[in-house]
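Hi there,

I know you've been waiting on this one. I reran it after we fixed the sequence typo, so this is the corrected version. Both the input and the resulting structure follow.
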Amino acid sequence: MTSKQEAEQTQTATEIEEEHPSKIEAPAPENQAEVETEGETETEAAADEADLAAQLEEARSKADENWNLAVRAKAELENLRKRHERDLTNAHKYALERFVNELLPVRDSLELGLKAAQEESADVAKLREGTELTLNLFNTVLEKFNVAVIDPEGEPFNPELHQAMSMQPTEEIEPNTVITVVQKGYSLNGRLVRPAMVIVSQAVSKNIDGQG
């Protein structure tokens, strides 16, 4: 075949392709399953991202709520602490207010008794009576506040409530017995405030021959 014939065949093939383009094969399409899988993956990723964003927003909301609760609780505790301190301070300052109010009539009675004793026409019997009334009034006040008198004359000596000033030998009283109360003791709500000052009996020592 000559070169001229080859050229004519090539030209004829080109003309046929131009006249009948449908006969030219189109490129093969991509795998349809892979395309669908990629689309589903992108959709799931977007859904997961939206879900995470919603969870994050909910977490932030709860965090803000818990923070507000914590701040409110702290403020309430601070107010409670201040109120407790104020009440405690007032309790220390005014704990004896009622006791003082109860003692004032005793003082008034003492002043009246002293004024009456200074008069030239003072009656000793009346002064004694007034003093007794004042003492009874004072004892009533002590009883109101659970102050008990410790007056252990004739009782066994108790070192937890009594303080022995001296020992006195005697045969008439059992040893270790309170003979004399020099100064009365007092307790407050069962707690010792001041022990009673007492003189305690002691057994009489005897000589070997049995003589005193």
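Quick highlight: Residues 146-207 form a domain with the Nucleotide Exchange Factor Grpe; Chain A, domain 2 fold (CATH 2.30.22.10).

Best,
R. S.
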